[in-house]
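Database export, one record per block. Field names are fixed; values are copied verbatim from the stored entry.
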Amino acid sequence: AAQGNVGFLHEQGIPGLFSSDTAEAALWYEAAAQQGDVPARRRIGDLIHQGAIFAINGTPDHARAVQAYASLPSDAEAVHSLAYMHEHGLGTDRNASEALRLYAHAAHLGRNATARGSPKESLPATEGQIASEAAAVA
Protein backbone atom coordinates (compact mmCIF):
# COMPACT_ATOMS: atom_id res chain seq x y z
CA ALA A 1 0.00 0.00 0.00
CA ALA A 2 2.86 2.38 0.73
CA GLN A 3 4.15 2.12 -2.84
CA GLY A 4 0.65 2.86 -4.14
CA ASN A 5 0.55 5.94 -1.94
CA VAL A 6 3.90 7.09 -3.31
CA GLY A 7 2.48 6.57 -6.80
CA PHE A 8 -0.52 8.73 -5.91
CA LEU A 9 1.76 11.50 -4.64
CA HIS A 10 3.76 11.42 -7.87
CA GLU A 11 0.57 11.45 -9.93
CA GLN A 12 -0.83 14.45 -8.08
CA GLY A 13 2.43 16.26 -7.41
CA ILE A 14 3.23 18.18 -4.25
CA PRO A 15 3.41 21.96 -4.64
CA GLY A 16 6.84 23.23 -3.69
CA LEU A 17 8.42 19.75 -3.75
CA PHE A 18 7.78 18.21 -7.16
CA SER A 19 5.34 18.45 -10.02
CA SER A 20 3.01 15.75 -11.24
CA ASP A 21 4.85 12.89 -13.01
CA THR A 22 2.51 10.25 -14.41
CA ALA A 23 5.34 8.04 -15.68
CA GLU A 24 6.94 7.95 -12.23
CA ALA A 25 3.53 7.35 -10.65
CA ALA A 26 2.97 4.40 -12.99
CA LEU A 27 6.27 2.84 -11.89
CA TRP A 28 5.22 3.05 -8.25
CA TYR A 29 1.73 1.75 -9.00
CA GLU A 30 3.24 -1.19 -10.90
CA ALA A 31 5.54 -2.01 -7.97
CA ALA A 32 2.55 -1.90 -5.63
CA ALA A 33 0.44 -4.00 -8.02
CA GLN A 34 3.17 -6.64 -8.14
CA GLN A 35 2.69 -6.98 -4.37
CA GLY A 36 -1.06 -7.44 -4.72
CA ASP A 37 -2.23 -3.84 -4.29
CA VAL A 38 -5.58 -3.92 -6.15
CA PRO A 39 -6.24 -0.15 -6.12
CA ALA A 40 -2.78 0.41 -7.64
CA ARG A 41 -3.49 -2.16 -10.37
CA ARG A 42 -6.83 -0.45 -11.07
CA ARG A 43 -5.15 2.96 -11.20
CA ILE A 44 -2.80 1.64 -13.89
CA GLY A 45 -5.91 0.77 -15.92
CA ASP A 46 -7.24 4.28 -15.34
CA LEU A 47 -3.98 5.87 -16.52
CA ILE A 48 -3.98 3.68 -19.62
CA HIS A 49 -7.61 4.59 -20.35
CA GLN A 50 -6.83 8.29 -19.98
CA GLY A 51 -3.87 7.99 -22.35
CA ALA A 52 -1.45 9.06 -19.63
CA ILE A 53 0.62 5.89 -20.17
CA PHE A 54 0.97 3.45 -23.08
CA ALA A 55 -0.69 5.84 -25.52
CA ILE A 56 -0.21 5.05 -29.20
CA ASN A 57 0.43 8.19 -31.24
CA GLY A 58 -1.33 10.20 -28.53
CA THR A 59 -4.37 7.89 -28.49
CA PRO A 60 -5.24 5.86 -25.37
CA ASP A 61 -4.66 2.12 -25.72
CA HIS A 62 -8.20 1.20 -24.66
CA ALA A 63 -7.68 -2.51 -25.40
CA ARG A 64 -4.86 -2.55 -22.85
CA ALA A 65 -7.10 -0.76 -20.34
CA VAL A 66 -9.81 -3.39 -20.91
CA GLN A 67 -7.22 -6.08 -20.10
CA ALA A 68 -6.15 -4.24 -16.96
CA TYR A 69 -9.72 -3.90 -15.69
CA ALA A 70 -10.64 -7.47 -16.68
CA SER A 71 -7.77 -8.75 -14.53
CA LEU A 72 -9.63 -7.51 -11.43
CA PRO A 73 -13.00 -9.35 -11.50
CA SER A 74 -13.56 -8.95 -7.75
CA ASP A 75 -12.89 -5.20 -7.63
CA ALA A 76 -16.11 -3.21 -7.93
CA GLU A 77 -14.43 -0.12 -9.39
CA ALA A 78 -12.50 -2.10 -12.02
CA VAL A 79 -15.62 -4.04 -13.00
CA HIS A 80 -17.53 -0.76 -13.31
CA SER A 81 -14.78 0.68 -15.50
CA LEU A 82 -14.86 -2.46 -17.64
CA ALA A 83 -18.63 -2.07 -18.00
CA TYR A 84 -18.11 1.52 -19.15
CA MET A 85 -15.62 0.33 -21.77
CA HIS A 86 -18.15 -2.21 -23.08
CA GLU A 87 -20.97 0.34 -23.02
CA HIS A 88 -18.98 2.78 -25.15
CA GLY A 89 -17.03 0.32 -27.30
CA LEU A 90 -13.65 1.45 -26.01
CA GLY A 91 -11.00 -1.21 -26.57
CA THR A 92 -13.69 -3.80 -27.18
CA ASP A 93 -16.84 -4.19 -29.21
CA ARG A 94 -19.74 -2.08 -28.01
CA ASN A 95 -21.95 -4.51 -26.10
CA ALA A 96 -24.86 -3.15 -24.06
CA SER A 97 -25.84 -6.54 -22.63
CA GLU A 98 -22.28 -7.19 -21.40
CA ALA A 99 -22.13 -3.66 -20.00
CA LEU A 100 -25.40 -4.27 -18.17
CA ARG A 101 -24.11 -7.56 -16.78
CA LEU A 102 -20.89 -5.92 -15.60
CA TYR A 103 -22.68 -2.92 -14.06
CA ALA A 104 -24.90 -5.39 -12.16
CA HIS A 105 -21.83 -7.32 -11.04
CA ALA A 106 -20.14 -4.10 -9.89
CA ALA A 107 -23.27 -3.23 -7.89
CA HIS A 108 -23.28 -6.73 -6.41
CA LEU A 109 -19.65 -6.21 -5.37
CA GLY A 110 -20.73 -3.07 -3.54
CA ARG A 111 -20.12 -0.31 -6.05
CA ASN A 112 -22.22 2.75 -5.33
CA ALA A 113 -23.35 4.22 -8.65
CA THR A 114 -22.49 7.73 -7.45
CA ALA A 115 -19.09 6.84 -5.96
CA ARG A 116 -17.08 7.25 -9.11
CA GLY A 117 -17.80 7.91 -12.73
CA SER A 118 -16.12 6.46 -15.76
CA PRO A 119 -12.42 5.81 -15.73
CA LYS A 120 -12.22 9.48 -16.73
CA GLU A 121 -14.26 10.44 -13.64
CA SER A 122 -17.38 11.49 -15.54
CA LEU A 123 -20.61 9.57 -15.40
CA PRO A 124 -22.03 8.58 -18.75
CA ALA A 125 -25.53 9.89 -19.34
CA THR A 126 -26.98 6.42 -19.69
CA GLU A 127 -25.40 4.95 -16.55
CA GLY A 128 -28.38 5.85 -14.37
CA GLN A 129 -30.69 4.02 -16.72
CA ILE A 130 -28.38 1.02 -16.95
CA ALA A 131 -27.87 0.97 -13.16
CA SER A 132 -31.66 0.97 -12.65
CA GLU A 133 -32.01 -1.93 -15.07
CA ALA A 134 -29.14 -3.74 -13.39
CA ALA A 135 -30.74 -3.34 -9.97
CA ALA A 136 -33.97 -4.80 -11.32
CA VAL A 137 -32.04 -7.78 -12.74
CA ALA A 138 -30.02 -8.35 -9.54
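Remark 1: The helical segments are 2-12, 22-34, 38-50, 62-70, 76-88, 96-108, 127-137.
Remark 2: The two ends are 33 Å apart (CA to CA).
End of record.
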